[in-house]
Amino acid sequence: MSVLLQLIDGVKSYGDQRLLDNTSVTIHEGMKVGLIGRNGAGKSTLLRVLLKEEELDSGEVVHGPRLRIGYLRQHDPFEPDESALDFLMRDSGQPDWKCGEVAGRFELKGDFLHGPVRSLSGGWQTRVKLAALLLHDPNLLLLDEPTNFLDLRTQILLEHFLKTFPASCLIVSHDRAFLTATCSQTLDLSRGRLTLYPGKIGDYLAHVEEQRQRDERTNAAIVARQKQLQRFIERNRAKATTASQARSKQKQLNRLQTVQIDSELPVVHIRAPEVEPRQGPALRCMDLSIGYPGHTVASGIDLEVDHQQRAAIVGDNGQGKTTLLRTLVDSLKPVAGRVKWGYGCSIGVYAQHVYTTLPEDQTILEYLEYRSRPGITTQDCLNVAGSLLFRGAHVKKQIRVLSGGERARVCLAGLLLGEFNVLILDEPGNHLDVETVDALADALTAYRGTVLFTSHDRHFVRRVATSVIEVRDHRVRHYGGDYDAYLYAVNREIDDGERQREQARAASRTDPESGGSRSKLSGREEHSLRRQVRSLEKKIARLDDEKKRLSAELLETSDADAALELHNQIEALQQQVADLENSWYELQVELGEF
To answer: Are 167 and 15 in contact (CB under 8 A)?
Structure first.
């Protein structure tokens, strides 16, 4: 395997924090690597360094001669009123027929392709960005949190794509289930050091824990031996008959060194509010319709959630999960029907609109003291803040200077200091790293109150949920099975859809009226045709580049004769491109693609 990219002895610091500490890594062709590390460890900085968008303090980044990087950025690259097809053509410089072909791989057709791209959901916009990457023909994909805000079906479609993607990938993600499904190797960034492990994230984390336990056992044995040698030396060094033995033991003692074990990084410990467990229904929805003036999102909702139940509200983006939660907590009025909470329910809400409206001028400690239940002391507030990694002078920070992740933790801390026996949580894992999400899952499973929550993190939902409520096709219903059963059903639905599309394509290839003939081709013939297709695509791309160059010259020239000559050359190129596109289409028909 040839080397695509190397970081050699990289050093990168921000102030007193050293994000890269004389560390190295090599990415070869065919590697699919999951990059993990805590928030603030420097993962996004590492990607920018590898892209050569940021300079190292020392060290070197080497791009292989064949490297073609495709980088999935989190920012919005779209222009106002631009369609997905317009964006793909602008971003790649490829003609519309080529952009349409690649977009079809991500089911981008009809209104999804020709309507305003900014009107699409985050999941569909991610598909557009991925199609744009492929049009640049990359052999290394760099994906920075690709599953952020993606619904379950789009996550699974992306997984299917990455599993079959023939080139290399470097994926930053906090989603363990996604990394397990897509990456065969794990790259850990911790304390400025990069560790590349030839296995999946679960195996790597188990390996780290086993290594730590092994080192601790080794150190215990070494310490016991050191004490044994020290006692012998002290008893015998003063005696003439045993002094030489004591000196020999001293040399052994000097050679004995314990294994260096890094001190554990601060760990989040979350404790849910202590509440008196209750029985019976906590929530009833009776013939409920939800939505907005003039637009009903879902109707005919009849739900009952019991006390101590932890219900995951699931469904594709745009189906109405957040609308349902907002209606349940009365921040949105029902279109019709009733929401009734049980007697004595005290409801705590965690949602994006909550932690983006925190009081800017308060410090963290002031906010927590304000939100805490009667009898809670300042020390109690400091303990909860410390459990969420706000320690020392950090608690005196004003909320206005906090990041999104820090505000999310402050909001969680406020809930934990309250006395709520019902928690409504809308995407509580967003902006939180793996360790904090795990600690939250531990706390919620020990909580004796009622939880209704949404999350795109399958690992988190699987651990927490005791029941599943699905929002889909303008309906809301209790799903019959557990979350694993729901995941199985969604995977099967996607597999069935892909199978049906493939069968339809195969049928069109063998239908005489379609002109398709793929069923008559041998493997060698098909390979030859596909090689011709790739050759034509490269020729068309070269001619397009030449046409752009001549058009730019035409715009700059003031000589009439030169302008006429350039115009004639451009027209000749356009005719060549048209002829090549016709040949390309004929080959695709012969292959059964159209």
So the answer is: no
**Cα dist from 175 to 45, 86, 412, 424, whole Å:** 19, 32, 20, 22
**DSSP 8-state code for residue 234:** H
- The residue-averaged pLDDT of 130-154 equals 85
Distance CA(180)–CA(200), nearest Å, equals 6
What's the token pair of residue 539? Answer: 């020729």
First-residue to last-residue Cα distance in the chain:
35
Q: Who contacts 280 (Cβ-Cβ below 8 Å, separation ≥6)?
A: 306, 307, 342
**Across 32-46, 70-84, 190-204, which has the greatest mean pLDDT?**
190-204
Residue 204: which of 178, 184, 181, 186 has the closest Cα? 186
Express each pLDDT in 380-389 by its tens digit: 888 888 877 7
User: Residue type at 27?
Assistant: I
The Cβ of residue 477 has, within 10 Å, a number of other Cβ atoms equal to 15
Q: How far is CA 17 from CA 21, 380, 393, in A?
A: 10, 30, 17
Give CA–CA dist 98/81, Å, rounded.
Answer: 22
- Listing from the earlier edge strand, what are the strands of the sheet with 422-426? 347-350, 422-426, 450-454, 310-314, 467-472, 475-479
Least Cα distance to 190 among 177, 202, 208 occurs for 208
Tell me if 217 sits within 8 A of 233, measured CB to CB.
no
pTM here?
A: 0.69
Residues with Cβ within 8 Å of residue 40, at least 6 apart in sequence: none
Copy the structure tokens of residue 579: 């002829």
Q: Across the strands, what pairs with 17?
A: 14
Q: Cα separation of 292 and 301, whole Å?
A: 16
Helices (H) and strands (E) counted in the chain, each on its own, are 19, 18
CA distance 180 to 73: 22
- Residue 171 per-residue DSSP state: E
Contact between 199 and 209 under an 8 Å Cβ cutoff? The reply is no
Read off the tokens for 581.
């596109």
Which helix (DSSP H) or strand (DSSP E) does residue 296 occupy?
A: strand 295-306
Please calculate the CA angle 327-329-333 and round it to the nearest 5 degrees. 35
* 185 vs 1: CA distance, rounded Å: 15
| Lookup: tokens for 238 | 């003063």
Residue 322: how many CA atoms within 13 Å on its side-chain side? 15
Q: Which two tokens stand for residue 450?
A: 């009622």
Confidence (pLDDT) at 336: 94
Backbone angles phi, psi at 424, to 5 degrees: -110, 115
CB 516, CB 508: distance < 8 Å: yes
